[in-house]
Design a protein that fits this description.
The radius of gyration is 18 Å and the shape is globular. The protein contains 6 helices and no strands. The chain is mostly helical. Helix content is about 65%, strand content about 0%. α3 (about 50-55) runs antiparallel to α4 (about 60-70) and α4 packs across α5. The chain has helices at about 10-20, 25-45, 50-55, 60-70, 75-85, 100-115.
């Protein structure tokens, strides 16, 4: 067990606000996902859950998260961001297989279905 202190901690205040906004029937699912996400990051580097939790507030942006990841994994994040420059019409690197591409498309379709977007089926 643990306590959240929204009166004195910005991250705790953010979590309490999001919890209050979440329908009661979905809160357990949200808390489970948050806990497992922290453990997934901790599996990569045990400092990450603590660093992310200290960074969290209403103003935390995706760029803030990337900056934190870059501080821990500079080469990996830079390599990932360099791959971002590939345009839609450009081909994938030769090392990617057709099976990996099909798996990527399945993952995208699953995400679209989870979040209400149209699938490509």
């Amino acid at each position: 067990m643990f306590y959240l202190n929204p009166e004195t901690n910005e991250a705790d205040r953010f979590v309490c606000q999001k919890t209050d906004e979440t329908p009661q029937g979905e809160r357990g699912r949200l808390w489970r996902a948050a806990l497992l996400t922290g453990f997934a990051f901790g599996k990569q580097d045990e400092r990450l859950p603590y660093l992310f939790s200290e960074l969290l507030n209403d103003g935390t942006s995706f760029d803030d998260l990337l900056q934190l990841l870059r501080a821990v994994y500079p080469r990996e994040v830079d390599a990932l961001l360099q791959g971002q420059g590939r345009g839609v019409g450009e081909s994938a690197p030769a090392s990617r297989t057709v099976a990996a591409t099909a798996g990527d498309e399945e993952t995208r379709n699953n995400a679209r279905q989870m979040f209400g977007g149209p699938s490509n089926d």
